[in-house]
Design goal:
Its main location: nucleus. The protein has about 350 residues and is mainly beta. Helices cover about 10% and strands about 30% of the residues.
């Protein structure tokens, strides 16, 4: 792979600005109840069931079986039994793990077996960003190859793609809120702790990737459907995505590969304005303390890190992994992107 160009995803059109909150106008929507079939002999609808797969007596704090109950009691981390409606279903992956010291390896299969993708650290770096839904690889022996990150498939070619790892990848979960991807576990603007952590979701996902997880905010329940990659509340359905934490294989190789993307292009850092228009970071007196080139240098040193800067008297943090600009005073957030121009 000589050249890789990323395609940034179209973010969700959600207009709700409250993190982890779907409570507005909730009284107009019927509240979900525990599934009566799940509480009897097992629900045949599994992950498609519109009711909660939780012990109805546990919700009332009066289950006589206690910890010996065969049904779900963990409201902040409940496991939906999955498509077959049976309890204790566990998924066993068939993808091989790396055992040769590599942390990850991307591969393509053209029908003649799996082959490693060269310089796949570029692909991996783009995959870690939740707002990137696909990437196009140029100058391969197959021509241009476009990969859909969300569905892990190759567009318009009779090929397959997969990502192998050593089993130690740290996965992060994000929810689409107000046209931004927000990592589960992030405190809200008032400093309140999040109702569920990213690692808790990943633990449940590893237990059953076709199941779901339920968590509670006050008297309201929310459910993350792993198969559909959606968070379902009383009023809205939101997209969720799962991306790995970036691990640098070799910084020198990463720098060289990025620098060789194109002799006629250079990376430009931009932030998204209030009306969806993108603006370049520019340093100026009384304005922004960093330029696009300053950000690029910091990014090259630590692609999965962050950097602080000021605009006037306001302090901001630029999170490279989440591709997000954060106001350190009011926790306001804006999408950022790295575009080749």
């Amino acid at each position: 792979m000589a050249t890789a160009k990323s395609h940034v995803s179209d973010v969700s059109e959600d207009s709700d600005s409250d993190k982890y909150s779907d409570t507005q106008d909730a009284a107009q929507v019927p509240k979900k109840e525990p599934c009566r079939y799940y509480n009897k002999a097992g629900c045949k609808r599994g992950g498609k069931c519109e009711y909660w797969h939780v012990c109805k007596y546990a919700l009332q704090s009066n289950c006589r079986y206690g910890i010996n109950c065969k049904l779900n009691h963990n409201i902040n981390g409940s496991l939906n039994p999955g498509a077959d409606g049976k309890h204790g279903n566990r998924w066993k992956p068939g993808v091989p793990k790396l055992t040769d010291g590599r942390h990850y390896q991307w591969q393509l299969n053209d029908g003649k077996g799996w082959k490693d993708i060269d310089n796949d650290h570029i692909l991996e770096a783009q995959y870690t960003l939740p707002n990137n839904k696909s990437i196009k690889l140029y100058n391969t022996k197959y021509g241009g190859v476009s990969i859909d990150f969300n569905r892990m498939r190759v567009y318009e070619k009779n090929m397959r793609v997969r990502r192998l790892d050593d089993g130690n990848t740290v996965w992060n979960w994000y929810c689409s809120l107000s046209r931004k991807w927000v990592k589960y576990g992030v405190k809200d603007s008032k400093g309140n702790p999040a109702p569920v952590q990213s690692y808790e979701i990943e633990r449940m996902y590893q237990s059953n990737p076709t199941g779901s997880m339920t968590f509670q905010i006050g008297s309201n329940f929310y459910e993350i459907h792993f198969k559909e990659m959606q968070q379902v509340g009383q009023r809205k359905e939101r997209k969720v995505t799962r991306r790995p934490t970036y691990y640098q294989k070799h910084q020198g190789a990463f720098l060289l590969a990025v620098q060789n993307l194109s002799l006629n292009q250079r990376p430009q850092w931009q932030y998204e304005g209030d009306k969806g228009k993108w603006h370049e970071y520019k340093r100026g007196p009384g304005g922004c303390s960093v330029s696009s080139d300053d950000i690029e240098r910091s990014y090259m040193q630590t692609p999965s890190g962050d950097m602080d800067f000021t605009v006037g008297t306001n302090m901001y943090k630029l999170d490279f992994q989440a591709m997000m600009q954060i106001n350190l005073h009011n926790q306001g957030q804006r999408n950022v992107r790295r575009k080749m121009v």
